[in-house]
Amino acid sequence: MKAGSLEVTREGDAAVIKASGDWTVGSCTRLDLALRKLSTAQARQVSFDLAGVERLDTAGAWLAVRTLLELKAAGISGAFRGVKADHSVLLQRVADVGELPALAPHPGFNLFDFLERMGKAVIDFGKAGRGLIGFFGAMLLSFGRVLRHPSHIRFTSLVSNIEQHGLNAMPIVGLLLFFVGIVVAYQGYDQLRKFGQELLTVDLVGIAVLREMGVLITAIIIAGRSGSAFTAQIGTQQVNEEVDAIRTLGLDPMEVLVLPRVMALLIALPLLTFFADIIAILGGAFMTYMVMDMPFPQFLDRLRQAVEVKHFLVGMVKAPIFAVIISLVGCYEGMRVSGSAESVGRLTTQAVVESLFLVIILDALFANLFSFVGI
Amino acid sequence: MEASTSPIISIRGLRTQFGQQVIHDNLDLDVRRGEVLGVVGGSGTGKSVLLRTIIGLIRPRTGKISVLDQDTSGLNDAGWAKLQERWGVLFQSGALFSSLTVAQNIQVPMKEHTDLTPKMQAELTALKIELVGLAPESGAKLPSEISGGMKKRAGLARSLALDPEILFLDEPTAGLDPIGASAFDQLIRSLQQSLGLTVFMVTHDLDSLGAICDRIAVLVDKKVKVGTMAELLQDDHPWIREYFHGPRGRAARGETKENGK
């Protein structure tokens, strides 16, 4: 391989650009620079001598063609000479392209664009919210239809979804909630000790876990684990045109894809929450035993005094609501996928963010509502 | 191009295997410099697997593959990178990066492997877009905004970004309408001639075979049989007979004969 080079000589009032070596993409930057500095001053005519060129590719050919085009624009006539037979086809092909249209410039930062994007995002957010409500309505209608014709319930799909999103989630939910129980107990003990009220740690663990932590953390795990899976699964089916196929076969995608998932989570999330409550309390019991030497029977005794059934119910009543939100948002975003695989990824992220947002907002609303009515 | 007679791709004793399933067994193949080789075979005979093995996406069980006079099994990472600059690959559906515009897609190899200035990159990108017959404004579009045929052209432009010596095409005309497919065939032929490319093309398209391939490699019985269309027509292997003498084969050949006259 020989690096490409060029040399300018004069023949009377004509300038000759003598090219040699490899005029390929590798030498392109240097050649470009050399051609830019080319001085053909006072020349009336330029010959571009390519006889010495060993290898020529489109980049090199373009440089040569461009040089002649620029000279022509400056009123100097130019021509190639000594073009090798091997190179002539390529050179001709590139010369046929001629003047290149400029590529659309890369959009830079612009305040108006920024505002426009922000406005668009707000409007899209509103649209997504309205769409979600519409989707909820459509799901309810479909649910009503299925209730009237229970044979339309997809039992296989339902059971498989309960397994995937309920049973298979138990290890991770259990492990994380055990640690949540430990953390609540330890932090509570650390603060309450200052007042000499270590015993209240048990109350704290019981109430915090049953009312809030158990259901909220479980819902967050399931939003990340199952909400995203719903979007990705249905979204991939959209990309594969499976959803269109379902419609074409006279089936209702809502009934085939969405209802089994919503119903599965409606069953699985309360069960998981119950499981999570128990495990988190066990975690708390473990921690109180470690730091306070409180034996388990005494912990249970104290728990029974401190915690009323209503605390448990306040937590549990939220579980089916969170289940509907997570599954609905997951399925809705999945159905919104169109065309490319990239939108699957984008909408999966969006589904998780939206369902977390809604779950936490609703949880806060519930907390206010319950304290308002004094439960 | 150069008057070198050694084959540009040479495969000896190749065996590829997935678990117990043997795809190629003791396969030999030579691709000559500057030819268009069409690779055909029934579904599941490993046409795409052969292509992916040559470009290093699949490791062969045994056998020797040399590309551009380099034994690919003995290459280190740097050697591979060097070799990869010298070939371009067009995947079946274009495989454009969906988050980048068409122009940015074409610039990916330039950014990665060359020291071209941004201005030069933009010029070369515009040139490639012209060469593959895309409209200039399609450079700013995202892959999701263009049709399947345009995606293939854009993919071809990306595979040509560094002016490779070998072009690997995986079913370039699949999914295109007959007019689009024939235009794409002509595009490949004209680029191959003007850029002096060697083209390794996996295809199902009998029309492409007749129209632009110099030689045809047929994958049968885990090996390849290579020959020109005329030679393969004389072959008495049952699958090859069925392929070229079946109704579709006859129709495609009738057309090419007419074109030839």
Going by helix content, strand content and strand pairing, the class of chain B is alpha/beta
β-strand percent of chain A reads 5-15%
Report the helical percentage of chain A.
over 70%
Spatially, the strands of the biggest sheet of chain A line up as: 1-2-3-4
Alpha plus pi helix count of chain A = 12
Shape of chain A: elongated
Q: Identify the biggest protein-protein contact and residues per side.
A: A-B, 28 and 33 residues
- Helix proportion of chain B: 40-55%
What structural class is derived from the secondary structure elements of chain A? alpha/beta
Name the overall outline of chain B: globular
What fraction of the residues of chain B are assigned to beta strands by DSSP? 15-25%
Q: In whole angstroms, how far apart are the ends of chain A? A: 84 Å
Strand and helix order of chain A? EEHEHEHHHHHHHHHH
Number of strands of chain B: 10
Largest sheet of chain B: 6 strands, mixed
Give the overall average pLDDT of chain A.
88
Assembly annotation: heterodimer
According to DSSP, the number of beta strands of chain A is 4
List the secondary-structure elements of chain B in sequence, H or E.
EEEHEEHEHHHEHEHEEHHH
Q: Main sheet of chain B: which strands, in order across? A: 6-7-8-3-9-10
